[in-house]
Amino acid sequence: ALTTKSSSDVFDLERYELLGDAFLKFATSLYLIKYHKEWHEGFLTAVKGQIVSNRNLVYCAIKYGLPGMLKVHKFDPKNDWQPPLATVPKNIKQTMQAVNHSARVLYRLTMTDEEIKTGVVDPKTSDEFIAQLEMHGNTPDPSPMANYLSQQTMGDKTPADAMV
């Protein structure tokens, strides 16, 4: 179940999350009781809580690439839709992700009329923009343009819920 309630789709992961959470806690409890009979019940409960914690589940979700597959936001063609071939050049996108920049800095990319017409950014323009990125501090704040970097913003609980 990869669709959250906030995406306003026909179905969502809430019921599956409830069942998965119950099953995960039950299976973890059985495992701990079977293999650690000498442990006190209070300690078993604490260990179970750590194993099935949202933090641990988020790490597992990231390991499997789950956050990138989740549908978190309601589809809004006016803001979310990205026309074919309207994309940020790969080298700029990779640099922005590597230095954790917000998509807001894309407004600083100044292109010539020729680059705008052809849709191809000159390597010199690209290199100058990348140099600007590396010179200025990072700005990891959320941006409505994050879609152009293939990013979406979500809380830690969302991928943890989808993991179960």
TrEMBL record:
GO terms for biological process: apoptotic DNA fragmentation; siRNA processing. Keywords: Hydrolase. It comes from the Eukaryota. The keyword rRNA-binding does not apply. GO terms for cellular component: cytoplasm; nucleus; RISC-loading complex. Residues 1-99 form the RNase III domain. Transmembrane segments: none annotated. InterPro entries: RNase_III_dom, RNase_III_sf. Pfam families: Ribonuclease_3. GO terms for molecular function: deoxyribonuclease I activity; ribonuclease III activity; RNA binding. This is Dicer 2.
